[in-house]
Structure formats: structure tokens, C-alpha cells
Design a protein that fits this description.
- The complex is a heterotrimer.
- Chain A contains 25 helices and 38 strands.
- Chain A has a five-stranded antiparallel β-sheet. In chain A, strands 13-14-15-17-16 form a five-stranded mixed β-barrel.
- In chain A, helix 19 packs across helix 20 and helix 21 packs antiparallel against helix 23.
- By secondary structure, chain B is α+β, with helices and mostly antiparallel strands.
- Chain B has a single domain, classed as GHMP Kinase, N-terminal domain (Ribosomal Protein S5, domain 2).
- In chain B, the strands form three sheets. In chain B, strands 1, 2, 3, 4, 5 and 6 form a six-stranded mixed β-sheet that branches. In chain B, strands 10-9-11-12 form a four-stranded antiparallel β-sheet. A two-stranded antiparallel ribbon of chain B has the order 7-8.
- The N and C termini of chain B lie far apart (53 Å).
- By secondary structure, chain C is an alpha+beta fold.
- Chain C has one domain: Ribosomal Protein S5, domain 2 (2-Layer Sandwich), CATH 3.30.230.
- In chain C, helix 1 packs across helix 2.
- The longest helix of chain C is centred in the last third of the chain and has 39 residues.
- The radius of gyration of chain C is 18 Å and the shape is globular.
- Classes of the chains: A alpha+beta, B alpha+beta, C alpha+beta.
- Chains in contact: A-B, A-C, B-C.
- At the A-C interface, strand 2, helix 3 and helix 4 of A face helix 4 of C.
């Protein structure tokens, strides 16, 4: 029941729609302070005697930050030194409205008991509710509301002191708004700027570095001109309201800003609502301070000002404040100009903390420094720090605070130190952070959800599961695999048909919905594989032991069992929860050997042969349907057992058994997808792979043409056929290169919830199947866990739960899984890159490579042996390379130097070294050895051990 | 005894009273029932008023919407009145389509709005030929005890005076209306029409503000609507007993004084409601 | 990006209530003269009016006459100005007809109709302002009006909504909360005997959550009952005082 609540009606008008809301004021909202004897509260959040040593506020006090302080100085507030903070509801709501990520961080603070952050619902408190005055701007109003609450707290704490002994606790308002501060001081409140407050703290000098440099960012236009330099480098950003009307009228376009990795002066904006539309942006002024992944508003340039991507690889080298731009214009080829635009405003910044290093500064005592992010799409950031010296050679994390119009670089502040550059653990940490991979050890709450060990199967378990322990089941995986999530079996039936089973680890038996373990796994989304490290989605006890279908151990499985004819036609499909006992955990090589060994005829071997035969039929059928076989080169590092440094690397070899396992996993996934979709038409979790828009194939078609090969791209079938036919005598690697290029034309495959899309969009292009999902790897993918749960409900093996059947929540989950999946891939690649660098450290290697792309000032070369791609710069980066012997021919995509012409697919020999001169970015340096160009190429290494590299046998 | 007499011979019963210059409810012939006013009680409406005239209760809610003006009158907005006499308010009314009486009163309201010029339709125009306001004035009788016309007019006028419209401008670029949330403007009320209704009994007795009972017995009814400059903007006499000119003049004089009282009441009430 | 936060981490809803609190209820009985019984109720910003006529002889369509009991006739309508966007049809649309039907079913179940064979009871309800829980306000107003009319009922009928939003059950949900698109349950019950007269839900709610929501709604109905009962008693003692005074 409502107690004595007077209420005030708030009328908010939007359009001509009159919205009326009630607003109740309460007298049962407590102050949250342990020093208060007046409020009948259970567990006060704020400490009775808050201690913080300060020259400015040398008395016990609580802090009340205003909205901008929370928004900009979260790094300070999140520091463990800052405790006992009152977050007003007004501030919290405004923060929520303005920045989702900051809001989340703020919530984390309030949930952290050690931080003593208390959220005070001031707008519903009878004594702190403040009515907006007529003509008062919303900013002024909010400031006033905050002052009212501050005043109330001071008064309340004074009047309700518990007893005489406790010290008087005061409340300090933190605001960087001068007017607000002056008004507060006039009202007798204690008010300081964050900077004043933090600088006065004793014993936490490093906190000063974390202060965001936003004062200038907040300043208005006139302030900018008053600044010393007086220069304005960038056009003004239009206010949000103007952007919104402009977008509505179609004058501006809204889109995601995607900075180019190759050229820091170029970017593309992916227009929202029209996936295939991408607008090109070039040059400082047009990029206009947008940072990668921001949501921006752009204006199209008139067609005669359209630009053409410079096909140049350009890195921001000069550290000075000059804005001189290298000439990017394409001399000829207006015809190549593509729709171009300029950024007129930023709708939403998507800044995050960035990893990187400090650029060495000439002056020792300087406090202003440039920070170079590890991600090349992010501009350098100017920060202020007094500990520059100790930060040299360290990987650090920096946040952007703002980007004033008169600053060449965005301004930011130091967040924390990760470790030494080049150190493997530090670099691993960097790449995990950069890819937002959650990698903290599992919390106690998560570990508490695990079954107790030793774990065994009970009678009750057996009663509700099919007993398949006598069936000859085996698993086939890569060597060293400890998280075995699938196993297979093959048994001939008396009627001449065959029973084939796919058995998947029954992870959902252990991971129950909405437990801490489940939530952690859902957040992690998947297991991330780095070269020397695996970041598990679920704790090791599950992933490598209880769930892992190890050989000769009894395990729970979720089985998908088909009855098939000898021609691999499915007669019937059934699903069941089971208990299995794998007869053998094989590697691909072992399985292959067993199949090939004519003398072996045990049930497992016979089964493998049968499976292999069926798999071939299935594969042929799939390829006939138009499934694509694409190529990418995967490498495996041999790691020194002690230093964990890579000592050798090999490309992964594909055997028949790989494809055998893959075929049955595909089949199981498809069967499960059909089942869950038929039972849950609106909330089945599926995986789709959209057909790429035709323009994606331009590069492939062009590449084919350069060698006189026609590539059809109308359907996946046509593409598959023409890829099969694309061979050139004497160039065995050509086909693989083409397939590598085709891979880059593809779209990302995505998880989605079936209720959110029309059925025609369910299609999986790459696999040429109308419907697909992931069922077979629940140990390392969360999507499979959801699919398991859905399937378990379908067969009445388990109960459903609310979130499982909520399509919006499912879709939100899919979005996270898609993001994590993408990031896991990137992290994996980055890890390979890192290890490749470590591998080449202190070595000079020569290797065969193939030209993959020809750019204006560089060629990109693929080195198959090491599975990586490198750039050979032919001209200096500013594009003014008069000294270079190479001439670029855009139409032909070639670079010519005298006799030598480099074109796509050409074989070259390159020399690989690690460039260590630049401490900030250690990178591989690739130089041309053959064909020789006098004055440009480097001579072959004169050693006996690196003879002519062996020509690799290429598998297509 | 009296009740039996009333039921058996209502006309005679009534005549006895009128002979003594008094009415069964104790009023004098020219006396009008106590009028109470509650303005702005419906917050979902742009303007609203609840009026009680004796027991007769009418609520008027005004909703504003944006629309396009007609091609013939591109500079004018619209005011659309409607009177609802739902079965809720009296056993006289049955569920179903609007009764004849409801339609007559609705039309009368439309006439009063037009003739009095209470709101200049030009004031409702935002962009000529493009955008204008339409004010839907819905009056609903909640308790029917006669003289619904006078009550409706008071509720309409009070509600109109209560209307606050957000300032709307048209974005030149998009052509779409932009609403200023902060700025709300009252309507320009140009005239204040007030209606006074008289009942005629036996071609002889003239009394103001008839109750339901009196309406049933009356041989004729006359409504006079006047504005503050002492002009008559509407007269409504749906048949019944004829009236002499001098009688009519009496009615008009009574109507003028009554209108003054009502306008005072509305202004006082509005001033007492804080916006 | 950031939609409305229906309930804050601190447990307050948009309007400042906690999850199991009703809105402020104001009620008045006997507000009109023409009707045999009438009542007006405000539940927060939802304002409803109910009048009752009868029992009287069956009008229109003698076929409807029931020889063993009275016919209950209900009509629900919403004023055109009751919602943010003007309602072009105050009654007779599908939703209103459905509401009318629900009301009739509800009151047929609680009025002791056997006492008035071959007669008819009319219940008219009018929403003057809508802010969620329209049906409930109507039922509660109608209960008071029926009591005011002196028609015997087996028990009060009290109605209340409860929703399930952001994973927590919320009592007496307002229009903003309704529009959040989450499932909500409307319950009308006889609070003394705890019998549910009407239960309606039009969206999907997982069975696991149903119990929590239903429990909350039931509690809500009892809370409503407490308020209504107090009003009825106050009203009766007031009228009694008036009668004895005169």
C-alpha cells in the first residue's frame, strides 16, 4: 500500500501527444549513510567515518559528482582511492541516457561493496524533489537539482548524527561547471572541480594522470579561438538536433565510421539501414575528428568532388602538429571516383580504452605526450603525464576524453600500465584487451556452480538417459585437444541400413540456466584460442574433464542418431540424451592410419571406414548443391617447452578424416536446426550466412581477369564451379590464391533468433543449406548451449525457462555471440601475428611469396609457408617517392620498374626480418629479393641453410 | 400525499406551484441552479472543464491534432464539437447510435462556435495550406437533469480557455512539423458566448434553467446565446408555444445578466487554477 | 539506445513506486442523481465513472428475459479525450466490446441475480482518463456503483493488474509500463473468498513466472479491497449521519 505520498504530475509533451505521468514523492528513501541515526535503514552503504587524506578536504566527507564528472572522469571514480560517493538518480539517469558504457561502469561501482557508492533516488524523495522553473534550461535545472540534494545531505547528516562521538560528515560537490560551483559556494556548499580535488589528495599522485582533459572539450567556439594557437584545424560539428533533422530530410546520412587500416587519412562510412552502401571519406578535414566505430552523420560531396581511394598504404608518422597532407588525389581515373562524403557531426562516440605505447618525447621533463595505439585505425592520442619516463617501453592503456577543433590529435588520459613492450604476456594481455575478450579467472560464484569431484554417473542419471556405452563410439580431433565435444559411431543394422550417431558433450546438464556459471559463459560467448593459450568459456573442470568425451570414460552426451541407407539417404533422425563411453580418442592422423591399415578390422576401424565412405557421398552432394570450398592458411607453431617461444611453424594439413568429421557435424547441425525451428518457430537460435552483394566480388573478378580466367559469381554454385575450373598451368598456387581472395569477398556468418527475420533470410550461403545452426561444440561455443537447451525441450528431456523463449532476449544474446565470435577470430589472428613476429626475431629469412594486391605505393604479398600477408612498400609513405623506380599502373594493377613488372599472382621471393628500430610497433619488415630491381631489392642472403625455398605442393 | 399527486397529475401539480411564483425545487421562476466549475481536471486533454448546473453534469475535453487545411480555406483550422448523451447519464437514453437530441445539441454547439466567433479559425492555422490545428471538443453529459445546452456551452468555453497548445513550427527542410516542448501557448479566445435556456409553461409562465422534469412538462423552450459585447449570437427555439416580443425581450435581458455571471465565474475559476 | 528504465536498480519505478505498490486510489460514491447507483474512482491517473440502473424491466428484445434471474447489461466506453492520442471511437470498437463483455461476465458472476428474475441491471462505465489498468478501474468503480445502488452481491469484486517487466513482477502497471511491451495479467477477484472471477493475459509469459505475477496481482486485489471497503464504510456512515441529522 502506498503510504502518505503527495504526488505531482509531470506533463511531458512530445509532438502533439500529451503524455501524462504520475510522479510519487516518498518519505521512505534513506540517506544510505552509516553516520546517520535518523534513517531506519538496514545496511547503510556509505561508511560512518570515510577516510581520505586530502589537503583540501581534511575532514570526513562524501562526494557528490555531477553528470559531467561521472561521464568524463569515470577512470578517477573507478579508482580504489575514491570511495563513499553519492550518485544522485538525476545524475545516474542522465549518464544512462548519454553513455551506455559509462552507465555500466557506474553500476559496477555501485555493486562493488568496497567502493561504497550509494545511489540516492533524489527525484522521488519528498525533500529533494525540485520542480522545474519556467524558462529554466534543462542543464540549469539539473544543476539546481544536484545542489538541492547536496544541501539536503549536509543538513540531514548534521541533524541526524548518531551520537556525539562520530565525526561530522560533510558532503562535497564535484563539478567542473564554474557557474554551478559558484552558485553552490554561494549557498554555503563545499564545491570543487575534480582537478582541484584530485590534486589535493595525499598519497595518490598517479590519480592525477587519470584525470580526463575535457575542460577544453567542453568549451565553446569562442573559447577555442582564445586559445594560444588560435588555429582551428577542423570544421565545427553540427549540433545533434540539426543532425537529426538533416538525417530525416535526407541531407545527411547516418552511419558507422570505419577507419582504414592501411591509410590513416581514409575511412568508409557504412550507412545505417542500407547495409550495402558505403561512403568514402578522405582527408583530415573531411574525416573531421571521427574515430573508428563512431556513429557519425555525413554529407555527400557533389559528384565532381568524389574521390578515389588512393590505394596507398599510409601511416601517421609525423608527430608534429602539422596538418600537411600527403597528396592522395588520383591523377587520372576520375572514373574510379566513388561516392564520397564528409563528416559533419558525431552522433555517438564509441570510444573505449585503447592499448598502446607512449611515443618517445625529445624533452625529458615534458608532461604532454603522444600515445600510439596498437590498433592502427585509432589516431594518436595526446595525454598529459608526469611519469612519462617510467612509461617508456611499456604497454599502457589510455582513454580519449575529447577532440577539440584546434587539436591535431584527440586528448586523453592515462588509465593504467600493462607491462613491457614485446613481453609475451603483456602482448597477450594487449590483444585480449584490444579484442574485448573477457579473460579474468572465473569468479568464486562461477566455480561454486561446478559439480563436486570426483564426479560419477548415478543410477538416477542412467534412468533418464539412453545407455549407449556398448556402442563403438570414438572421437577424432586435432592432436593435443583436451576439450573433446564430439564423438561418432557407425553400426550396420540387420535391415541393411546403417545407424550413424553423432554424440555431443552434454554441457547443459552441468550449466543450468541463470546460474553464475551460465551468465559468465553467455558473456564470454566462446572459447578463444590463442597460439599458446586457450581462454576457456567454461572452467577447465568442465571443458577438459567432465564434459570432454575422453576415451574409455563414461560421459553424458546429447546424441543425434540417424538411420541411413548405404547411399547416405536419411531414413529417420532421432535425438536423445545418453550415456556413452568412447572407445578411443583419436587424432586425425591416427584415424587416417587406422582407415588405411588394411589389417585392422576392429569395430572402431570398420566404423571409421563406413563413416568415411558416407562422408564422401555427403560432401559430394553438398558441393553439387553449391557449397563453397574456400581457402585460408592456418599455421601451427611449435613452441619451446620452456620459453614458450615459437621455434618452428607448420601449416595445418587437411586429411580425409578432417572432412569426415566435418561432414557429420554439418549434418547434425542441419538436422538439429530443422528440429528446433519446427518446434520453436520464433525463438530458435540459428546461424545464417548472407549472400554477398555483387560488388563484393569485383576484386575477385578483376583478379581472375588479369590472368584470363572468368569467375561467375551469380550463385554459390556458379562460383564453386568457376573456382574449380580456374587453374593456370605452371602456377599451382593460383587456385588457392583465388580462393583466399574469394574468402575475403564473403559476408560474416551470423547467429540470429528465428523470430526476428523472414524465413528467406535463414539461408547459409557458404554451406548452401536453407537452414543451419551450431550444435556440436557446446564446450567452446555458447550458441550451442542454447541450441542444446532448445533441443532438450523439444524432446521433453528438460524444462524450458523464460529467457529461452523470449525472442528479443535471444536476439540480444545472438548479438553478443556474434560480437564475441568476431573478436575471438581477430584475437586469434592477432595472436598468430604476434607469434610470427616472435618467430622471426633475430632471424633473416627468405621465402617464396605471391602478390595478392597491387597498391599505389606498395604490393601486398602472401607468404604461404607462414600463412601471413605482408606489405612491401615501393615508395615512401607520403606518396612522393620520386626515388622509387616503380611506376604504378592503376588500370592494369601493376607496378613496373624497368624490366620488372609486378602484377597480381606473381611469384616473388622476399626477405623477412623483424624491425626493431621502432619500439612502439615491432613489425615484420618484408623486402623484395626477386625479381631483382637494382637499387631497390636486397641481395639474397648468402647462407647455405636458406637455399632456394622448396616449391610447395599445393592442395586445392 | 404530494408524491402521489405528482405522479398522477404532474402538469396540474406543477401548475399549482407556478401560480405561487415558485418551483417544486424551491427556486423562483427566474432563478438559475447553482453552477460549479472544475477546470483542467483531465490532464490527457489539451483543455478540459467539468461543469455542474444543479445536478446536470457535463465534462468537456478538448484534444488538438495537426491536420491539413482544406483547399477552399487554406488559412483556417477546424473546431469540431460533439455532444454525447450516453445512457450512463440518464435512463432516458438508450445504448446505440447518438440520440436525436444529442445530434441537435451538437449542431447547436457548432452554430454557437461559428456565430460567436469564440475562436478565430485563422488562429489555428500554422502554415497556410499545409498545416493547421483541429480542435476536437467533446462534451459528454455525465448526469442529465435538464438544460444540457447551457451546461455544454459553459463547459466548452471554460475548456477552450484552458487549452494550451505547444508551439509548432515547420522545418523548412523536411517539411515536417517540429514541436517546441517547452513553449505552450493559450488559445486566443475572441468572444465568450454564454447560453441561457428558458422554459415556457401554459403559454404564460416563463422560467429559466429547466430541470429534466420541467423540460418534460414545458410547452416550449428557448435558448438565447449572448456574447460579452451584449450581442446575441444565437437563438434557438425548437417549435412549441409562441412567444410575444416583450416576453422575448425579457428573456434577452435575463440572458445578458446571466452571461455576465457565468463569465465572471469562469474567469475566477481559471485564475484560481495554477497552470 | 537507452529506452526507458522501467524499474531502477534501487527498486523504484518510473513514477517512484516500488514494485508491489498500488497507485493512489481515490473514490467517491453516489455522485449522480439520475442513476440508481454511481461511483467515481481515480487510480493514479486512470479515472473512471460507473453508473448503475436497475433492476428494472427488460427493455428492448424481450427474448433476453431470463426467467430465473436478472440480465446484466454492461457498456464500456472511453472518452475521446481520455488518451494521449484522441480516440476516434469512444465505444463500439472491438476492444470496447470486449471490455463490455468482460465486465458483464464479471458482474453476472457476483451479483445475486437470482433475486431479480425477469429484470435487467444496467452497468455503464466511462473512462475519463486512461493511464493503464482501465479494466480494473472500471470493475472497481462498478463495484462501488452496484453497492451504491443497493443491489446485493456475493462479495466485492476488485481488480488489479500485475506485469512482468525486466524480470521482476510489478503491481498495478501504468500506461508507460504497459507500453513497454511486457506481459501483464489482469485479475478480478472476490477478495474475501479469494475466488478469481476473471483472469486475462494476452501475451506470452513463461509458466515459471506465472505464479509470482499471479500472487502479486492477488495481493493487489486485496489491497484494492481494503481501500474500497474503507470508502464504502465511510460513505455509509456519512449518509447515515446525514439521514439521522435531517
Amino acid at each position: 500500500m502506498l503510504k502518505s505520498k503527495t504526488f505531482v504530475k509531470k506533463t511531458r509533451k512530445g509532438g502533439v501527444l500529451k503524455v501524462v505521468r504520475e510522479h510519487y514523492l516518498r518519505d521512505d528513501i534513506w540517506c544510505g549513510s552509516a553516520a546517520c541515526g535518523g534513517c531506519p535503514q538496514d545496511r547503510p552503504v556509505l561508511e560512518a567515518e570515510p577516510e581520505i587524506d586530502s589537503t583540501l578536504c581534511g575532514f570526513p566527507h562524501y562526494l557528490i559528482p555531477d553528470t559531467n564528472v561521472v561521464l568524463h572522469q569515470m577512470d578517477v571514480l573507478a579508482d580504489s582511492a575514491i570511495r563513499n560517493v553519492i550518485i544522485l538518480q538525476t545524475v545516474q539517469q542522465e549518464v544512462r541516457h548519454r553513455s551506455g558504457t559509462t552507465y555500466q561502469r557506474l553500476r559496477d561501482q555501485s555493486n562493488n561493496a568496497d567502493k561504497h557508492f550509494y545511489v540516492f533516488t533524489n527525484e522521488h524523495h519528498r525533500e529533494t524533489y525540485t520542480e522545474r522553473e519556467q524558462g529554466e534550461s534543462s542543464n540549469d535545472y539539473n544543476d539546481r537539482v544536484i545542489r538541492v540534494a547536496t544541501r539536503w545531505y549536509n543538513k540531514h547528516l548534521q541533524e541526524n548524527r548518531k551520537d556525539g562521538d562520530t565525526p561530522k560528515v560533510k558532503v562535497v560537490l564535484l563539478t567542473n561547471d564554474r557557474e554551478n560551483r559558484e552558485k553552490a559556494q554561494k549557498e554555503g556548499l563545499l564545491a570543487y572541480t575534480v582537478h582541484q580535488y584530485v590534486k589535493a589528495l595525499k598519497g595518490n599522485p598517479e590519480l592525477v594522470d587519470r584525470l580526463a582533459q575535457v575542460d577544453m572539450g567542453e568549451s565553446t567556439d569562442s573559447d577555442i579561438k582564445n586559445e594560444a594557437t588560435g588555429r582551428v584545424l577542423f570544421p565545427e560539428h553540427l549540433p545533434l538536433s540539426q543532425l537529426q533533422t538533416g538525417i530525416k530530410s535526407g541531407r545527411y546520412l547516418q552511419g558507422s565510421f570505419m577507419a582504414s587500416r592501411e591509410n590513416y587519412l581514409e575511412a568508409n562510412v557504412l550507412v545505417h539501414g542500407d547495409d550495402s552502401r558505403s561512403i568514402f571519406i578522405q582527408g583530415h578535414a573531411h574525416l573531421n575528428r571521427a574515430v573508428n566505430e563512431d556513429v557519425v552523420a555525413i554529407e555527400m560531396l557533389p559528384e565532381d568532388q568524389w574521390k578515389c581511394p588512393s590505394s596507398m598504404v599510409l601511416q601517421d608518422k609525423d608527430g608534429d602538429e602539422e596538418t600537411s597532407e600527403p597528396d592522395l588525389g588520383s591523377p587520372k581515373g576520375r572514373s574510379n571516383a566513388i561516392p564520397s562524403g564528409r563528416v559533419v557531426g558525431v552522433i555517438k562516440r564509441n570510444w573505449r580504452p585503447y592499448c598502446g605505447v607512449l611515443q618517445p618525447s625529445g624533452i625529458k621533463e615534458a608532461t604532454r605526450h603522444l600515445f600510439m595505439p596498437a590498433e592502427r585505425k585509432i589516431p594518436k592520442i595526446r595525454i598529459e603525464t608526469r611519469q612519462a619516463e617510467s612509461l617508456q617501453g611499456q604497454r599502457i592503456v589510455v582513454s580519449i576524453d575529447g577532440w577539440p577543433r584546434n587539436s591535431r590529435y584527440p586528448k586523453g588520459h592515462f588509465v593504467r600500465k600493462l607491462g613491457e613492450v614485446g613481453d609475451k604476456d603483456t602482448e597477450n594481455e594487449v590483444l585480449l584487451l584490444e579484442h574485448d575478450v573477457p579473460h579474468q579467472p572465473f569468479s568464486q560464484a562461477v566455480l561454486n556452480c561446478l559439480p563436486s569431484t570426483p564426479w560419477g554417473i548415478t543410477k538416477e542419471d542412467l534412468a533418464c538417459r539412453e545407455d549407449l556405452r556398448d556402442i563403438p563410439i570414438c572421437s577424432v580431433d586435432p592432436p593435443g585437444c583436451t576439450d573433446i565435444d564430439d564423438a561418432l559411431h557407425y553400426v550396420e543394422k540387420p535391415n541393411g541400413n546403417i545407424e550413424v550417431g553423432v554424440h555431443i558433450a552434454d554441457v547443459t546438464h552441468f550449466i543450468r540456466p541463470n546460474t553464475a556459471l551460465d551468465q559468465e559463459a553467455a558473456n564470454r560467448g566462446n572459447t578463444v584460442y590463442l597460439c599458446d593459450k586457450r581462454i576457456d568459456m567454461v572452467p577447465e573442470l568442465l571443458s577438459s574433464n567432465i564434459c570432454s568425451l575422453r576415451g574409455k570414460e563414461e560421459r553424458f552426451a546429447f546424441s543425434c542418431i540417424w538411420e541411413m541407407t548405404k547411399d547416405a539417404d536419411i531414413v529417420s533422425t532421432r535425438f536423445c540424451k545418453s550415456v556413452i563411453c568412447s572407445k578411443a580418442a583419436l587424432t586425425y592422423a591416427e584415424a587416417q592410419m587406422m582407415i588405411d591399415d588394411k589389417n585392422r578390422n576392429d569395430p572402431v576401424t570398420v566404423g571409421l571406414r563406413g563413416l568415411n565412405a558416407l562422408a564422401k557421398i555427403l560432401k559430394k552432394r553438398r558441393i553439387d548443391a553449391g557449397a563453397l570450398t574456400l581457402a585460408s592458411i592456418e599455421v601451427r607453431f611449435h613452441v619451446d617447452s620452456e620459453t614458450h617461444d615459437p621455434i618452428d611453424l607448420e601449416t595445418k594439413e587437411l586429411r580425409e578424416t578432417n572432412s569426415m568429421v566435418e561432414e557429420f557435424m554439418l549434418l547434425a547441425n542441419i538436422s538439429v536446426a530443422k528440429k528446433i525451428l519446427s518446434d520453436f518457430p520464433s525463438c530458435a537460435m540459428l546461424r545464417r550466412h548472407p549472400q554477398p552483394p555483387p560488388s563484393n566480388y569485383d576484386i575477385l573478378i578483376k583478379a581472375g581477369k588479369s590472368k584470363g580466367v572468368d569467375i561467375e559469381t551469380d550463385t554459390s554454385k556458379a562460383l564453386a564451379v568457376s573456382l574449380d575450373q580456374a587453374t593456370i598451368p605452371g602456377h599451382p598456387y593460383f587456385n588457392t590464391l583465388l580462393r583466399i581472395i574469394s574468402t575475403r569477398c564473403m559476408m560474416q556468418a551470423l547467429y540470429f533468433c528465428s523470430g526476428t527475420l523472414p524465413e528467406s533470410d535463414y539461408f547459409h550461403y557458404g554451406l548452401a543449406t536453407p537452414i543451419y545452426t551450431h550444435f556440436t561444440s557446446p564446450i567452446r561455443r555458447y550458441s550451442d548451449i542454447i541450441v542444446h537447451r532448445l533441443l532438450a525441450v523439444c524432446i521433453n528431456a528438460d524444462k524450458s525457462y523464460p529467457d529461452l523463449l523470449d525472442k528479443y532476449k535471444s536476439q540480444a544474446l545472438c548479438n553478443n555471440l556474434n560480437f564475441r565470435h568476431k573478436m575471438a577470430q581477430y584475437a586469434g589472428r592477432a595472436s598468430v601475428e604476434l607469434h610470427t613476429q616472435l618467430f622471426f626475431k633475430n632471424k633473416v629469412t627468405e621465402e617464396e611469396g605471391f602478390v595478392l594486391f597491387v597498391r599505389k605505393n606498395a604490393v601486398q604479398v602472401l607468404i604461404p609457408k607462414f600463412g601471413f600477408e605482408g606489405t612491401i612498400f615501393l615508395k615512401s609513405q607520403d606518396g612522393r617517392g620520386e626515388d622509387s623506380p616503380f611506376v604504378f599502373n592503376e588500370e592494369e594493377s601493376s607496378q613496373t620498374a624497368g624490366e620488372v613488372k609486378l602484377r597480381m599472382f606473381d611469384r616473388v621471393v622476399v626477405q623477412i626480418t623483424v624491425e626493431t628500430s621502432h619500439i612502439q610497433h615491432q613489425k615484420l619488415r618484408i623486402r623484395l629479393v626477386k625479381p631483382q630491381v637494382p637499387g631497390f631489392t636486397v641481395p639474397p642472403v648468402d647462407t647455405s641453410n636458406s637455399a632456394e625455398p622448396p616449391v610447395k605442393k599445393v592442395k586445392t | 400525499m404530494a408524491a402521489d399527486f405528482k405522479t398522477a397529475q404532474p402538469v396540474e401539480y406543477y401548475r399549482r406551484f407556478l401560480k405561487e411564483d415558485v418551483r417544486p425545487d424551491g427556486r423562483e421562476l427566474g432563478e438559475i441552479r447553482h453552477t460549479t466549475l472544475n477546470i483542467g481536471s483531465i490532464t490527457t486533454a489539451e483543455g478540459s472543464a467539468l461543469v455542474k448546473l444543479g445536478n446536470t453534469t457535463v465534462i468537456c475535453g478538448i484534444k488538438a491534432e495537426l491536420c491539413n487545411p482544406t483547399a477552399e480555406e487554406p488559412k483556417k483550422g477546424f473546431v469540431v464539437p460533439n455532444v454525447d448523451l450516453p445512457p450512463l447519464c440518464s435512463p432516458r437514453f438508450r445504448p446505440g447510435p447518438p440520440s436525436e437530441q444529442a445530434q441537435v445539441v451538437s449542431q447547436l454547439m457548432a452554430d454557437i462556435i461559428e456565430n460567436s466567433g469564440v475562436v478565430a479559425l485563422e488562429d489555428l492555422c500554422i502554415v497556410e495550406g499545409k498545416l493547421c490545428w483541429v480542435l476536437y471538443c467533446d462534451m459528454m453529459c455525465l448526469d442529465y437533469d435538464g438544460n444540457v445546452v447551457d451546461t455544454c456551452v459553459i463547459s466548452l468555453l471554460a475548456a477552450l480557455k484552458n487549452v494550451l497548445l505547444p508551439e509548432v513550427t515547420v522545418n523548412e527542410e523536411t517539411g515536417s512539423p517540429v514541436t517546441d516542448v517547452e513553449k505552450k501557448l493559450p488559445l486566443n479566445i475572441r468572444k465568450c458566448p454564454v447560453a441561457t435556456t428558458f422554459g415556457v409553461f401554459d403559454d404564460h409562465y416563463l422560467f429559466t434553467d429547466p430541470t429534466n422534469e420541467e423540460e418534460c412538462l414545458a410547452t416550449g423552450v428557448l435558448t438565447v446565446v449572448t456574447t460579452e459585447d451584449n450581442k446575441i449570437c444565437c437563438m434557438h427555439k425548437p417549435g412549441g408555444t409562441a412567444l410575444s416580443e416583450s416576453r422575448l425581450q425579457d428573456c434577452i435581458n435575463r440572458a445578458l445578466t446571466r452571461a455576465e455571471e457565468v463569465r465572471k465565474l469562469i474567469d475566477e475559476t481559471i485564475n484560481s487554477v495554477e497552470r | 539506445m537507452a529506452g526507458l528504465e522501467i524499474i531502477s536498480d534501487q527498486g523504484y519505478r518510473i513514477d517512484g513506486r516500488r514494485s508491489s505498490e498500488l497507485r493512489k486510489v481515490c473514490a467517491r460514491m453516489g455522485v449522480f442523481t439520475q442513476a440508481d447507483g454511481s461511483a467515481y474512482i481515480e487510480q493514479g491517473n486512470t479515472k473512471a465513472l460507473a453508473t448503475v440502473y436497475g433492476p428494472h424491466e427488460v427493455r428492448k428484445g424481450r427474448g433476453k428475459i431470463q426467467h430465473d434471474r436478472a440480465v446484466v447489461n454492461c457498456q464500456f466506453s472511453m472518452a475521446t479525450f481520455s488518451t494521449g492520442e484522441r480516440k476516434s471511437r469512444p465505444k463500439g470498437d472491438r476492444r470496447s466490446q470486449e471490455m463490455s463483455m468482460h465486465l458483464r461476465q464479471t458482474f453476472e458472476a457476483v451479483i445475486v441475480t437470482e433475486l431479480f428474475p425477469r429484470s435487467q441491471i444496467d452497468i455503464y462505465v466511462q473512462i475519463l482518463q486512461a493511464d493503464g489498468g482501465n479494466y480494473c478501474a472500471c470493475v472497481n468503480a462498478a463495484t462501488l456503483a452496484v453497492i451504491d445502488a443497493g443491489i446485493p452481491m456475493k462479495d466485492y469484486v476488485c481488480a488489479c493488474t500485475a506485469g512482468f517487466i525486466q524480470d521482476s513482477p510489478l503491481l498495478d502497471i501504468s500506461y508507460v509500463e504497459e507500453s513497454a511491451g511486457a506481459p501483464f495479467l489482469t485479475v478480478a477477484m472476490m477478495p474475501k473468498s479469494e475466488q478469481i472471477v476473471l483472469l486475462e493475459m494476452n501475451s506470452r509469459l513463461h509458466a515459471d513466472n506465472m505464479e509470482k505475477v499471479l500472487d502479486l496481482a492477488t495481493q493487489g486485489c486485496k489491497d484494492v479491497f481494503a481501500v474500497l471497503d474503507r470508502h464504502v464504510r465511510d460513505h455509509v456512515s456519512e449518509s447515515h449521519a446525514l439521514m439521522t441529522a435531517s
